Every structure is written in C-alpha cells, then in structure tokens.
Amino acid sequence: MSRIVLASRPDGAPTPDNFRLETAPVPTPGDGEVMVRVHYMSLDPYMRGRMDDAKSYAASVPVGGLMEGGSVGEVIASNSPAFTPGDIAFGPFGWATHGVAPAKQCRKVDPDQAPITTSLGALGMPGFTGWFALHEHGRPKEGETLVVAAATGPVGSMVGQIAKARGLRAVGIAGGADKCALATDHFGFDVCIDHRAHATAKDLRAALREACPDGIDIYFENVGGKVLDAVLPLMNAHGRIPLCGMIAWYNAGGLGNDAAEEGLSAPRLWRTILVSHLSVNGFIISNHWDRFPEFISEVGPLVGNGTIKVQEDITEGLENAPQAFIDMLTGGNTGKAMVKVV
Ligand code: NDP
C-alpha cells in the first residue's frame, strides 16, 4: 500500500517538501476494527492545523506520522459485526490507499442514496458543519440577511442553500468571477461578491453594503482576515456569528498578522460585539456527532434527489494529494476537495 506522511512541519504555507509518499505493508484489522481499500480521500482545511506543533483542540500529526483524514472505501476485512466485506465505509483512514480503524469510528455509506463522494462533503463532516452551526448558532429567521465566505466550498454552499430554503437573503463571498457565478447559478445565492476583486476591506465593505441593504443578521465565519474586517461594521443589532473557521489566518500559526494589516484590532472587535449585541459562537463539529443522524435523515434525501446541489473537485492519485491540499488552502479548489485514490 501507499501512504503519505508528514515529512516536516511547515513554516507558514505548506510546501510539497512537508509531505512524503511511502510504501508500507497493508494493515490487518485488530479486534473490533475494519480494513478498507480507500476510493476517495477528503482534503479539509483543518488538516493544516494538524501539521503544526501547537496547542489546539486535537493532537498534531507527529513528524513521520500518517497524515490524518477521513476517507471512503470498500471494506475488505472486518472484525466487527457492524461491517461485512463489500460494505462502503467512511472512516479516519488517513492519507493512504488502505486503512484500518475501529468500527465504532466508521459509518456505513449507502451508495444508493447518493454518490459515495458526498460522504466526504455535502453528506459528510463539512455539510453537517454548515447545517449544524447555521441552525444552532445562526438561528436563521425568514427575511434576514446572511453572509458566508468560501461560498462554493462544502460548508459555505450548504449554509447558503439552507439559508435560501429558510427564506433568508443569502450573500456569498468567493474568490474569482467563476466561483461567484457558481454560487449564484448553481447554489442559488442571491448575490456573490468576489473578494479578490476588492483589494481592501474598505472596498469589499462597500460592495457588501450594496449587496446587503438591510444590513447583516448572520455572518457565518469561515475565513477571518479581510472579509471579517469588511463585514463587522455592517452587522445588525442582535446579529449572530457562528465562528466556524478562519482560513485566512491558518498559515499565520495564530491570530494577528492579517488582522494588524487590515486594521482589525481586538478593541474594535470587542466593541462591535458589545455595542451591536452580537452572539459569537465558536464550535468544533466533532463534539456534535450526536446530531449527525438527524442531519442525514433531513439532508440525505435532499442531496439524493438534487434539491441540495453539490460541487466536487476531484484530484486523481494519492501522490497528488499534497499539491491539491496546498492549492485548496488558497482557493485552488472549486467545490469539495478530494482525491480519487483507486
Ligand atoms: P473550502 O473547500 O471552501 O476551501 C477553503 C476555501 O477558503 C478556499 O477554496 C477559498 O475559497 C477560501 N479562502 C482561502 N483563503 C482565503 C482568504 N484569505 N480569504 C477568503 N477566503 C479564503 O473549505 P470548507 O468548506 O471545507 O471549510 C470552510 C471553513 O470551515 C474553513 O475555515 C474550515 O476550517 C472550517 N471548518 C470548521 C469546522 C469546525 O468544526 N469548526 C468543521 C469544518 C470546516 P475562495 O477561493 O472562494 O476564496
């Protein structure tokens, strides 16, 4: 089997040198474990954090260790009554052609409901993230205005589509004219603003002001950086900010650099939260898996029948995973980033 390990820790943006492709014996499942041959492997922004040796909500990948990640494939061997060979399973199998994991950390995927690739995106962790946080922390109400960046990604596109279905005005922010067209034409956003066409937070804010004549009630935070700076002054009183991610700052190793450049300071942030009575809720989706069955029973059929639209960006070959991952962090993906392994 082949696998990709963390060769070294990145200093800023990751480079191909931070990864190494290795061969290894095919693993055998222990008691209660399953072994799969991976078909598709997910590439997600959180993996950037795992490459750093910094305190976070999850342990770092050790140097020389298998890159972490979720993937979907066919069960080859099972020592658990929950799976039989031939089943399709999603689990934490890492960046590899084959993987072993405890059956209780895996879930069966129904290939008749939707293509199995959706278990990595719209019907997987990212789609669930958008659904969960919009309902739980966004508390959407008909007629309100929602803004979300990374609007064509698996989180942002789920947020926008649910917002529209709930009768909100959904304003997307995305990188480039093609992605903006995808956001409005495919995913149904009312408007999408190209953040690359607005060099400063001030310019971006002017475009947002026009797109949001009634202000912003929900800012679903995926990116931080210039977008957050642009959005903040436009938040309506009692607005909600589900704090999902801040990808603009992931390579900075922490808060600060972009914020200083953009003039976004802690005092201004706190003052805005206070005077606008904002609710800001950080969350980590892995603490909320108890809600996943509810999500799948509600959203699964909607993805299956095409009511909820999907966009996937599939790179061929495990060996190309590092570059695809590096590209995804700066917007090189159009839709859910994943790698076709077999
Ligand atoms: P995407 O597939 O949308 O990929 C990331 C996108 O971020 C890029 O395509 C790019 O889109 C955008 N981006 C990158 N840099 C910047 C920047 N400087 N300014 C604005 N946009 C930028 O990612 P996901 O949908 O998988 O994830 C979205 C966010 O949700 C991430 O921050 C992720 O970490 C977070 N997340 C958090 C979870 C939690 O538990 N809290 C769980 C899952 C995801 P574009 O080209 O359009 O700008």
From TrEMBL:
Keyword line: Oxidoreductase
Signal peptide: none
Oxidoreductase recorded as keyword: yes
Entry-linked SUPFAM superfamilies: GroES-like, NAD(P)-binding Rossmann-fold domains
A single MF term (Gene Ontology): oxidoreductase activity, acting on the CH-CH group of donors, NAD or NADP as acceptor
Domain spans labelled Enoyl reductase (ER): 14-339
UniProt xrefs under CDD domains: PGDH (cd05288)
InterPro entries the UniProt entry points to: ADH-like_C, ADH_N_2, ER, GroES-like_sf, MDR_fam, NAD(P)-bd_dom_sf
Region described as Disordered: 7-27
Protein name: NADP-dependent oxidoreductase
